[in-house]
Structure formats: C-alpha cells, structure tokens
Design goal:
With 594 residues, the protein is α+β, with helices and mostly antiparallel strands. The protein contains 18 helices and 25 strands. It is elongated.
Amino acid sequence: MPIHLLPEEIASQIAAGEVVERPASVVKELVENALDAGARRIRVRVAEAGQRLIEVSDDGQGIPAEELPLAVTRHATSKLHAAEDLFRIVTLGFRGEALASIASVSRFTIISRPPGAEIGARLRVEGGHAGTVEPLGAPPGTLVRVEDLFYNLPARRKFLKKPVTERRRIDALLTRYALAYPEVRFSLTQDGRSTLQTSGNGARREVLAALYGLETARRMLPVEALEGRIRVEGFISPTDLTRGNRQGILFFVNGRPVQDSTLSAALLRAYHTLLMVGRYPYAVLFLAMPPEDVDVNVHPTKAEVRFRDKDAVFRAVQRAARGALLAHTPVPDIQVNSPYLPPQEDAPFGGRAAPWDSAAPQKGAETDSPLGGAYLPGTLPRPEDESASPSPQRQPPLPGSVPLLRLVGQIASAYLVAEGPDGLYLIDQHAAHERVLFERFMARREETLPAQALLEPVTVTLPPEQARLLEGELPVLAKLGFQVEDFGRNTFLVRALPTLLAKMDPAAALRVLVEDFEEDETPLQGQVEAKIIARVCKRAAVKAGQTLSRDEQEALLRDLEACQSPRTCPHGRPTMIHLSVDVLERQFGRRGPR
C-alpha cells in the first residue's frame, strides 16, 4: 500500500485520542484553560456522565471574536512563542491541541467576551468543521459547551466505563483543582445535583473540610518546608488516620496535579515504621520549584513530569513530611523491661503473667473478647439445631480442605499453632476469622442481616468521588444491616450498623467500606455483594495482637476446619502455612536434602 497523507479529519481524531480519553479529560482541559485565563470563578455542569453535556464557564480574560477560529485550530496557542519556552512553562496548558481535539469528537460551542469588549461572540464546531463567528451578548469570560461527546466515534463510546465511574472521575478531578487553587471558587453540578462547591476565599483547610469532612480536615497536619530551590507545603494525616490504598495521596507540582513514583516513595519513606503494613496516609502536598527544574512536556495529558534532580525532590518531600510528623505527633511512653534488671513483684515476665499460665474463662462466663468465647456475641450464630446436636462424623479431608487439627497454642498474639497428621500448621487468626465470618454471611445473604440501631444518627461527609460510589451501593448495604440515607451534598446519615460492627465508630465503619472499594480483590471481581461482605468481615474479624483464650482458639480452629475454602481469606490471602514432617526432619538434619 503506497504512503499517503491522512485526511485532516482522521488526523484530528487520532490526535484527539491522545488528549481526550474520557469525559473527565474534557473537563480537565477546559478547567486548565480557565485557570490559565485568570478565572476566579469556574462553574462546571455535566449531564449523563459527560456523554450528553459538559459545560464549563469562567470569568477569565476571554478570547477576542477574531481569534475564536484560531482557538479551535490545532497547534494554536497563546502560551508559547519560542522553543526555549518549553523549558520554562508556567501555565497549565501549552500544546495548543485541547480545544481542537475536543471539537473534532463532539458538537462544540464556544462563547467568549473579553472584559473590555462591548459584545461577545459565538462559534460552533461539529466534528471538527467550524461554522462562522456570530456576535452575541454574553458576560465577561468564556463558556464552552461540549455536547454528544464521541458521537462520531461510537467505538470510543463503547470503551467508556459505567456512568457512575465516569462521574466519579470528574468529581475526583475537580476536587484536585479545588485543592490546588483555593482562591478560585469552584462549583460542579452533575445531572442537576450540586456535588462540589468551594468558597474561593483562599483557605485550603476549608476546602479540605468541604471535601473530606470537618473532622478529617481538622486532624490533618500542616506541612511547610523549604529545601534549596524546592518548597513543599500542604497537609498530611497523623499516623492514626489512614486508609487501605493510595487513593488519598495527592501531589501537585507548580499547581499541576501529577502522578510520580518518586514523590509517593518519598512520602511513604517519611512514614516508615509508623504505619501498619497495608495502610497508607492521606496527603495533599504542593511542590513549587523553578519551571526549568521540571519537564512537563512528557505526555499529552501532562499528568507525568520529569525532575532535573530527582534525588533533591525525594529528600525535600521526605524531610518535609517527616518533620511535620515529628513536630505534631507526640512520642509515646515506652516501658522497658530489661533482662538485666530484677523482675517486678517476682513475676517471671517482668510483672506480667505468661500468656499460657492465664486461666481460661469458665464456660458461660461473660467476655469482651473479639471472638466472644466459643460462640458468644461477636460472630454470626450457628443454626439453632446445630449446637444441640452431636458433632457429625468427620469425613476424610477434601482437596483444598484441612485435616483434623490439634491445637498447640497461640504465638505473638497473632497466630495459632496446630498439629495435623501430616505436620505443623501456622494459622493467621485474622485471616482465618475473616474466612469463617465470610462463609456464614454468604450462607445467609438472602436474608436481611441483623442490625443495631444507633442512639443518635451520625452524619458522614465523604469526598465527592466516594459519595458517588456509596450511592450506588446503598441497596446492598441495607441488606447487610446498614441503614444509611442520603443527607445532602456528599453527606450521609447513618442510623444503624450490622451487629458485627456495632462496636465500631459509625463514621469509620462507613469510610473503611468505601475506601476499600479500590482494593484488588481478584477472587471477588464482579460480585459486588460478596465484595462488600468481605469488607465487613475484614473489619469485624479478630485482629493480630489480640490474645485469645484457649476456648476461643479451639473454636476458631474448628470453625476453620468446617469452611469450604479454609486455606485462603475472602481476598485470596493465605490463612495458614503448612510445614510437613518431611520438611521439619530435613531442617533438623534428621534427613538429608533430596
């Protein structure tokens, strides 16, 4: 096939594919243009997750009528004049591709009026074909209306996510710009409902409160440091305010939201040894540096950057975050029992009784243990006739099951040690209890599970993208014992919790469910109800570090043996490690290596 030039229409659509991936991409480019134009007020209106309508209006400097046709032409920009300007970019946009790309895959309208002009102008573009400029009365600033996105690329529409996902992406995007530019008043309306509104008074903590709730914003620790040519400021969470994924970590470089592994690694290094494994902080950090020290011309979306001195950036972020943690987090008192000092009160373990010497609670005695005794409050009850009937004859273990085990004891308040006919078993008590609770929940998922009403309803404010996610799952949560009602913009009213979570703070219980939605739960993909049940069980299960009585250890072991899939927790992690007799003999030198 001979080489030939592509038609202009196809070339424009190919270029648009690099810039306009989804509706949120359109919002991003239009909001950045508004910020570059000096807007102090930006309004975004979206319908049908952006496929039917995206409208962004601002009160910026506007575009003269004679320049409107040029504004929707590829590689036309007011932000670059020479090649050297690429190495000192101070604006969010600079490529001159955004408006042309958007206009080539939608029905596009732009209305603009510079503040000094007596009248505004309008230009319509459909599928990349521009009409004529029309005079029109309009307020100062610019309004861009994007309708029927990807109407001429139906294949692209098929690759979009569900509407709730696309709406969440738009929520998350505008949230980031509201944090980066607190002096700008942002408003977002999706399908006639206001989901974001900021005051624009410049108080960044106030924006945090509007997005994450007053309590979370109040507890965030301020960060402010200068190291060389790099200034770091913003907020990070204390060590007891965390989440189960990295979604709460946001970075901005010279006002631009970016994704960079160096920045994330530096922040997590600052929290080293201060957080549990699998927990991550909240962070909203802003880096300011000379524009020549960062290259933003890496990718058409401008979400990736390259630093001239990556090590210097790493040190600046780590030291700034660590300094804030040390300045605002009190140092805990440490009790040291030195082996060289005489034990207190002649106790064999420095005044503490050995765990294996403590008497097990008597049967029928009340206990606050997480397992609640063999079958006391804290676990889903067995069927009524099961406890009254004798234990059935044990069958040979099925593939994937475990044999009859003999409990040896508990170590490190986290693991059970058991002996089987084929060797030694080390059992993670948290993962094992997760599996037990999960299978009981799933066996009763057709029922509405028991709930405990709160004495007073609790209001919970979530970030906009998390609020959209929760709205879609309220019916499923109701079946699981949650009574949650929509209570206004990104706010919910919690009236009851499942009995299993009755001792948890209602706000914390709701937040952990939502924040864990992004976790990789491969065994449960596509099973929304099962994923939510797994999260409930994860929060309700006995934790590592909790000492169990002998009866509770035995009960957990027996329950695990009865499970259909006892070797993994609902999220796919192992519940046990098996060391065969053969392995033990080789380790002790009783048998040579094979």
